[in-house]
Design brief:
mainly alpha, about 0% strand, disordered N terminus
Amino acid sequence: MSLDTRGTHEARTVTESPSVPAVQGEPPRSRLGLRRRERFGAGREQDTVPYALRGTRRGKVLRGVLLGVVALATIFPFYAMVVLSLKPSGAVEFPGSLLPWNLTTSAYSDVLGSQDVPQWLINTLIYSIVGVLGTLLLSALAGYAFAKKRFPGREAMFWSFLSMVMVPYHVTMIPTFVLIAKMNGVDTYWGLILPSLANAQAVFLMRQFIQGLPDELFEAAKIDGASEFQIFVRIVLPLIKPIMATLGTFVFLWHWNDFLWPLIVGQSTDMRTLTVGIASLQQQNVPLNVVLAGSVVAFVPIFMAYLVGQRYVTEGVAATGIKG
């Protein structure tokens, strides 16, 4: 009788104790010991994390200092370009020339008052805007066809077209120029713009994005009697606005900063773009502040374009990388 009572008492003591239930074959562990192990284990894991990445106050301060140094190193070239463009013409002295005083806008007056720079700006705008619109339209049409249409040789055609990405741009430049020259496209806008419309990367991104659209939308539109043109205009185009904004931003930046192809095709002064025109100023012994003022004028539009489209860039790139 006493043995049964003692066994019952021990069982009740084990059940009511604040220890963690013991695993078979192991002694019971108290909650205090478990918390100590967890705390010391977390400390050992935290030791493997760099100090600047920890969630402590000092870690946050150190992280902010590191990011601030990187930001200053990135912004410094732009700061130097703007300040030197506002300095009077003459010898450049460091670090005195980088201090923001004794500023003048005479260089900008020379740049904007010349006859060539406004024409170069117009040429660059035409090249960039028309190139962006044409690239987006053709890549959207091709991406829709490769993503949702079924026809013989679709995959072979798509991967053959995508293989153009592996071919260096400079390899195809000479044959393209010979073809444009035989078609009398030198020193013309269409000769400048036409070769840039076939963009394999844009077609690939469009195809990846459109593949993620549900097929039920297109089937329902066909049942309702919508034509292919109506499906593309009313369904596809509204749904691909994020990727179109992303591609539009990148293609605009690429056209605006393009140098080699406009240099080859635009052989006359009136057909030069800003990048080619500013480079030609250095060969004419133009003062440095005037050259940098032209660089600032060329930089402002692409900076504004990026500010407008940057919120779509991350969304579009992430969406195209999930499926496909």
